[in-house]
Protein: Cell shape-determining protein MreD
Organism: Streptosporangium lutulentum
Amino acid sequence: MLAIAAAVVFGLGLLLDLIGTSIAGIGGTTFLLLGLLLLALHQAGIGSAGTARSGSWRRARR
């Protein structure tokens, strides 16, 4: 979910950079850094579902 939010933030930052404007003083660079933060949190596993599910592929019946 955080990766989708990061993609939206990156898209908004790109649009702001192409237009050359800012929203309430927040420019494209700030959105770039926010997108990178969201991607780092996604890679760290924060905001994702837990891996200890009963239907895990590692615990499948043989």
Observations:
- The helical segments are 2-19, 28-44.
- DSSP finds two helices and no strands in the chain.
- The chain has a mean pLDDT of 81.
